[in-house]
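ARCHIVE CARD
SHELF: 3
SLOT: left
DATA:
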Amino acid sequence: MRRCRFGQLMTRSLKSSGVATICGVAALVALAGGCNAVDNIANLPIETSFAFTNFSKTTYAALRIRAHDDTDTAPYFPTELLAPGATQRQRFVDALGEGCPNTLDMQVLIYERANSDIPIGLDDGEVVGATPTVAGEILDVPACGVQPLETYTIVSWDTESGQSRVKLAQDTPVDAVIRAINLFDNADSTWDVDGVDPKFASDAPPEHAPFEPIAGQVLLANGDGVEGVGVMLRTRFRVRLNDANPTNDPDADFGDPITFTFTDTDGVFSFERPPGGYRLEFFSDDVAFRPAIIDVEPPIQSVLVVAEPI
């Protein structure tokens, strides 16, 4: 467990980071000072929320989150168990009882699949292990004490087995402060966890996130449906921030197909997956497609693809 005292770390940064860098951070904190007085979401200029996303290729992730206070006794709000590619969005006021927490406490838990030899979307029930393979906690992470964000992003990236990498509030003023106070000692400024904190060793996984439809139709120009078109579904993954080296494997992309289906006599296809980021790819020996690749987020039932005979 790592304890971060935001105010103490800001003071330390003032001594070590230089005036030019810290003045920008201090200005952000000063501008957000009114957040301490927020008692109701209606008083905020924007609605604040968090979004937890699992960008692993293979593992399932769960988050627990709460507003930080020094008593260290408040209950955590638990997310559902997120499959690769899935996202859960939640308003802070609904999850934590306040619209704009100054700082946050978080726990992350990673679960391995029981049937790793079967593609995720074809694995009936998508069973995971009874206990986490990675689990850790961090306290007092900067949030609205820097600046209220419409969506505070929390993203679990793809890693080696037994590890997790979580990126917080990417490319926001909160991210800038997290970097300025050196909360995480790595180039991507990610919260990295190795192994399982013993206090979480026996924690069972939460319920899976509910599925939503991804559906659409493949049509000829005259409106007739095209039967037998293959449709593959891929999930998004991310490994690190820098994907600029073309000699490396991609650090962010869509992974291997997790499931597939074929269109019926009306050209209709459908999948069921949790909300999140997915890529649809269409294939056939007889027709070409416009477009052949579509990125979607369920629920969506209006995907339309035009097929042209080859």
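SLOT: right
DATA:
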Amino acid sequence: MLHLRAWLLASLALLTAVPARADPLSAERLLHDAQVLVAIRGQRGWEIDRNEVELMLGPMLESYCRSDPDGRRMALQMAAAQRAALGGPLAEQLLAAQGDAEPVQEAVVAERVVLLLGRAATAATADCPTVVRPHEPFLGRQTAADRTVLHVDAGGLVTLRNSDHGWNYGGGGSGRLMAGRGWSVQWMGLTGLEIGGAALLDQSRQASEQQAQIRLHLYLATPLVVRRTWQQWHLDFDMAPVTQFNSSFGVRGFGFRSGVLVVVSTPRVLNTIPWAGIGVSAEQMLFGEAGRLGEWTVRGGFRAGFDWDFGALRRDRAPWRVGPK
């Protein structure tokens, strides 16, 4: 109840203090960028506030300089309201917790976000380049929300396959080229093309009569991916029709795959957000030779890639307004 009352009071103060022309979307995205940068920095270990904030100042200014003054003030007020909703001054909360930061970790993070936005405010006048103009609205830089991106990734896969002939296992890899759209800072959709393969040790009954063989199997898939994001962490849900080929590029069968990939991203680098993750998928062949054998496959492994905001250059280099809005 105390937290709810503090949140309502802070929200009321925010509504009365923010200029009417301030763009809530720009402020929300600026605040989101600050939260992502703080979360990523904190994951690596946070020591001295001043040093950590200075290390984040460059990427923070890349966002801050592209937002308008009213949006900047509103973002800082929103951050302060969130801090107030979490129980007031951090020093008092730490005192009540006898110096244990773990129970008040959310308040610690909220304090760091306020510090980062406050530091950016003091640096903006001197450090924001003259050629960088505020976006209308500012969509954020540590997100793919409200923009179309090109997604590229690749990775190694451990493969375990079973059919009426027995078990096969081995390893391989795959690469994906997809395009997608961010619906919000939490949700994104992607689709495109995936090519992969595996070298499998054939231990079927036919092979065991002679000698185990290495067989090369290739596949082509058209994945549909839905991504759920929690700041720097992402969870990809993948579904795809799959076509399998043998080493002579003859079609072995058609089937369906579903999988999940857990991803962690880094701060934005130029116009890309790099990431890496670990995933697993299950594939069932339904038609063709592989389908008649009742073949199913489990693949798992490490993937790395990036989301390229290819429209960023045009957006960042848009000409200045010369007339009235």
